[in-house]
Structure prediction request, 252 residues.
Amino acid sequence: MVPVFRALSDPSRRRLLDRLFERDGQTLGSLSQELPEMTRFGVMRHLAVLEAADLVTTRRVGREKLHYLNPVPIRLMHDRWINKFSEPVVSALSAMKRHLEAPMSTIDHVYSVYIQSTPDRVWKAITDGDDTIRYYYGTRVSSSWEPGAPLTYCYPDGSVAADGSVLVADPPHRLRMSFHARWDPDLEAEGPVEMDWVLEASGEATKLTVTTSGLIEGSRTAADFSGGIVYIVSGLKTLVESGGSIAMPAGA
Prediction:
């Protein structure tokens, strides 16, 4: 966690994170405008520090390199240093990422984390119901995991929390699915989104990147997923690395 603390110690880097908090998926050029007193190269160096600490993740779209806030390391710091001391703050801190000024009608969430295990083990944690029930809000996933196959996330009483279908399955490298929330009538009315789980071997670790696409700007789904996916990804990491489970967010 030292790189995260070091990255957050600089006010210019905190300012860049604030700008990505307000509007995610920005280019170097747009972020440079937020620090007019600094050269473009200086902004690039600050972004490199944030990316090395996994606080920022990037994705190329055409010729542009877009930068996304990745709150997972902050969530993990919270789980390590705050959660065990002050349980009531879990809900508030897990909702740290919202999109307020996105210029497009739809927005993406892109979160990533390094997990000290193999891609095969991480894939199992994503697709095995005995694992998901321990970190995915108590739901058990079920599917044959073949392209086109249906999938469901069910609560212990058998009621459906969410469903969808498998769009791409390339174990243990990539899983893309449609995902339709059913746990709330307002969310259900907003329709499905797509989730892309990409696993990349990195030495003895696996880099997991989760991209949620098709979120409508200002929607309930976008607001709920901003905190929910952070909780899920950090819980998956805790399960795979230690076999433990993190506390459920307040109100879950």
Notes: The two ends are 27 Å apart (CA to CA). Residues 102-242 form a domain with the Alpha-D-Glucose-1,6-Bisphosphate; Chain A, domain 4 fold (CATH 3.30.530.20).
